[in-house]
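RETRY 2/3 - previous attempt timed out on the joint model. Re-submitting the same 815-residue input unchanged.
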Amino acid sequence: MAKTTLKIEGMMCEGCVGKVKTSLEALDGVSSVDVNLKKGTATVEQSGVSDEALIGAVVDAGFRASVKHGLFS
Amino acid sequence: MSRTRIFRIGGMTCAACSNRIEKAIGSVPGVESVSANFGNNTATVVYDGSEESDEAIAKAVASAGYTLISDDREKAARQEKEAVRMQGRDLAIAVAFTIPLSIIAMGPMLGLFDIPEGDRGHLYYCLVQFFLTIPIIYAGRRFYRKGFPALFSRSPTMDSLVALGTTASMILGIYNTYLVYTGDLHAAHSLSFDSVGMIIALVSVGKYIEARSKSSTNDSLRKLLSLAADEAVVIRDGQEMSIPASELVPGDIMLIRPGDKVPTDGTVIGGSSSIDESMLTGESIPVSKKEGDVVYGATVNGSGSLRARVDKTGEDTVLFQIARMMEMAQGTKAPVAGLADRVAAVFVPVVIAIAAVCCIAWLIGGRDFQFSLTIAISVLVISCPCALGLATPLAIVVGTGNGSRHGILFKTAASLEEASKIDTVMLDKTGTITLGHPEVSSVDGDSDLVAKVAAAESDSEHPLGEAVVRYAESSGIPIPEHSGFESVAGGGVRCIVDGSKMTVGSRRFLEESGVAGIPEAEDDGITYIYAASDGDYIGKIGIRDPVRPESPAAIASLRSEGISAVMITGDRESTARSIASAVGIEEYHAETRPGDKLDLVKRKQIAQARVAMVGDGINDAPALTQADLGIAVGSGTDIAIESADIVMMNDDLRSVPAALQIGKATIRNVKQNLFFAFCYNAVCIPIAAGLPVLLGYDGLVSEMPMISAMAMSLSSISVVTNAVRMRRFEPKALAEAPASSP
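RETRY 2/3 succeeded.
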């Protein structure tokens, strides 16, 4: 189980959060999604999901995303 | 009779919004229950279902600061216009009361007149200003309605800053009026009612400009679907009958006559023809159809008749799918947060912190509560820059004005900002890089080949044939008489010219007519018309959609800015390759379907590119909407123009790099303006915070209204001057001479 943090651009409200969350949760291999509206991030608990698939899910929901790289990733 | 209806609500930004909407709708007579959901922007209402209640609900939602999104698009357009009209009225009120208010407030400072003598005179002087401020506050009510909730949800916006600053000014003004009432006449110099007026009036000017410049309505979907055929001729029970297209069911056999719109998607089971699919694919050359081929609804039949089996109807058709893709892309496209709001989000908490710290510091420093609170409020007053409201809209207006002077129409403010960030431009080939209509490019045969082919094609309505006729006419080649004209749909024509039997058409058509000696087809991206006289091959005429003369310069201009250009086309590989190399594009995608363009944009976005899409066809519409920035060619279809953020009015492809350059220049100007708007006020904060008192100049604090008025004027002048300066901006892409025709 790995943790990926995405930086998400364009979220305005809880409605946007809902869209991003639903879209990410629909991916196979994603077990939990935590979206933070204020920071503009989504933390995804997943196994074997590629960065591209995660970003793609966010783009499909109508937002822009990039993977945030921490110190140890 | 109670009924349940789901209303779509616009403007919900947080959980608190749904509560307010529930309260607002719940108070409408006739409403039994209501539940608002901010997740999907809806409110489910159980009510009497009357039209009066519909209107009352709409009003209640509007007065709570939200909008009811009407499913009726025309009504929505009317509502939008009404909203702009209301903003204009509010602006007029604000300006009408601010002018006398400012004159009264500044008069004594400027030495125009003195404050009336005595206790009464001073008090009246204060009260007149107070009463003049009330209608201004009313005119600025939406700043409070939106600003305070945003502030309390700890995501302050520009509205919050306006609400905070004017409220602080109001409190300070009322407090000083009270002081005058108690006999401290000098307090009449420290009123701050005029700040309220100036801030609301100026910010309202900005908001009004913004609202006006927004595209009034977007009814592209309605237009798109109006392309569908209304009537269809079907064969049922062996009878030919005309029925409304909406009554078609899969399995019906439809008859498609020459010139008809194809009623819906189906498979050809008999006949042959060529069909103009340009409204779906953007490709100008008609596609020939015979048994087994698929035809699409809303495309236009050429000169042959077809019988086709209905495969899909209504919402399953390609036309509807495109409409749905567009609707989804529109619905999910995130609004760009305003720059001013982003600055405000940082500035507001900082200012509140400074005000609080000052207040506490002065209390600790031994001053009384009254003095300390006055200091805190003064800080809040001075920190609300009224030029802030002008900084963005003014630059946007000058930027869009600059654009339209160069034939570039920016539809929204957000499009200018997005234009400044673009790093990848995707271009649809036909009608964008090329002119979009076929022209003769080569003649391979005897000197009278063109004359003969033009004669044979002069009755043809096929665009390729028309291109030859046009070419003959413009080259002054006389077109001989012909007789016995016969058109074979999807193949070519036969007729008698100068006594010999001409056969003109596609390679396959000539082969099927028994003509020998036709040269091998070349893979050079050119479409050929072959001709035979009395069964002998006599030559071919090459036809292609020519590249716009300025296309290579436009692509070069993009590359020089480090922006990569990608070409997408529904056309075949060989044509795509030759066009791409002619204009200097390295990456191209040929033989794409409408959905492919959308996917390609998404793929680029996933790879972190900022994508601008340039297109002209209906098939480009979903990609135009999905892209970060959609650019439509002005001569393109209405649907493309409406889905785009930017329209190139003059069809000059160099407008694409020019638009991006104007976007960059505008955003730079906005940032400069924001700096000018904030810097004077920021400099004044220490004065308001009581620094002069520390240094021993007690008097300066009572001069605060004067200083604040000066800061506001200076920042406004700087902002206006800087914005106007950009009117002279010339985009580099257009300054370079256009390249000669390739």
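The first helix of chain B runs from residue 15 to 26. Closing ticket.
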